Amino acid sequence: MTAQPGTVHLVGAGPGDPGLITVRGQRILESADVVVYDRLVSPELLESAKPDAKRLSAGKAPGGRGPTQAQINAQIVEHARAGRSVCRLKGGDPFVFGRGAEEIAAVAAAGIPWDVVPGVTSAVAAPAAAGIPLTHRDWASTATLVTGHEGEDTSSAPVDWAAVAAGGGTIVILMGVATLATTTARLMAEGRRPTEPVAVIEWATWPDERVTLGTLADIADTARRIGVRNPAVVVVGPVVGALRDDSA
Ligand code: SAH
Fold this sequence. Notes:
Mean pLDDT: 93
Largest sheet: 5 strands, parallel
Number of domains: 2
Order of helices and strands: EHEHEHEHEHEHEHEEHE
Distance between the termini: 67 Å
Radius of gyration: 19 Å
Bound molecules: S-adenosyl-L-homocysteine
Structural class: alpha/beta
Number of strands: 10
């Protein structure tokens, strides 16, 4: 007799602090038979899985080794087919630059039931943790989320930087450390002011969170000098200075 397939729950783990997973996500994590987790999921969070739950790392350090996306998809499908409930735990929100959609497409194609538990995305949580409002009555009515790493995954179409710059509001860049110099130069070339404030927030909500402030003109140099590393969120716009008087 073939077992009924288990459900695959695609769960957002939040930006890092184990307190920032949702209540629903936490309950699924506590009851899952299999937990497949990413690199940016706190080890502390994994401690709340059942003692006998299978824990599988799907982590890929940037440029490093790890399972391929196809291997991850196959593992998830295999465990669910065997009747196990799978908690696919992804950093932040699973559908924000996370390839969650590709995994769900594979699961759905295999006829396996699935659902999504939204997560607190670093795109919003990192600025918030640093005291930076993404929107503000006086400063910004829009916020644009953009990848600094076009083409890292096949799902990302090229970024229209002219349109991003012209939008005028807050710009939030994920995966943007390696390309910070070219991105900031591009935004200035497209008309953003060199004096526009920028914040880089590394390891937001983790114990080693660090916030670096500057302007479009100088942040790339500063970041290189002090050794800014991934994961980091870059925020561009006057909101950076809205609640801080130490900004540019
Ligand atoms: N799905 C995730 C994003 C995955 S892409 C989310 O919603 O947050 C990975 C990028 O997310 C990193 O390169 C970095 O830009 C950002 N990121 C994730 N966690 C972060 C954290 N705790 N602090 C700063 N940036 C983070």
